[in-house]
Amino acid sequence: MEVVFDIQKQVEEASKGYRLSIESTLQVGFNLLRKAPAEFIIFSVLGLIIFSNPISGVLLGGPVMASYFHMAHLVSRDQQIEISDFFKGFEKTGSLIKLSLIIFLIVLLGLIMLILPGIYFAVSYVFSHLFVWFYDKDPSEAIRLSRKTVSGNFGQILLLFLILAGINLLGVMALGIGILLTMPFSFCVVYAAFDDIIGISN
Hints:
The protein has 202 residues and is mostly helical. The chain has helices at 7-15, 22-35, 37-51, 54-76, 93-112, 116-124, 128-135, 139-151, 154-173, 179-197.
């Protein structure tokens, strides 16, 4: 029997506080990546091409992120990833592009305002794309839900955010090739955190 989540209730509960095990979340993310390493690495070649250009990163980054989360969801349910899944996120291109543009502008404005507000916004909106993809929320609602979710334990989400940033930096330093592993790992970890805090319906 399929479980139907009351997403508003889940977010409301999360906003009251929760404890996220950083170590466990990283381990779950690694286990997800390990289930389909070749598929994630191949997809990351496309992701790297898109994210390496600021314009394509903003315009197409949203659908790419959704595809990562979709793939993580498949392997979490022990389902096989097909080539078509690489482009699954593009099924909601309009909403995801709009979401990415809104977040980009808000974070950019925050960075201009003494940097710290930009970091706050970037961390607060980390779950936005998952709300659009898995719960079909419009961009403004997804941003609101993400911020409210993160507010339940901003410190731990910030720590996780910084750890992933550091891991990806190491990936870039490893002749740039390491990012093909660290990038999908990061999305798997964010997926794992979201699934732990909010839950994802089948």
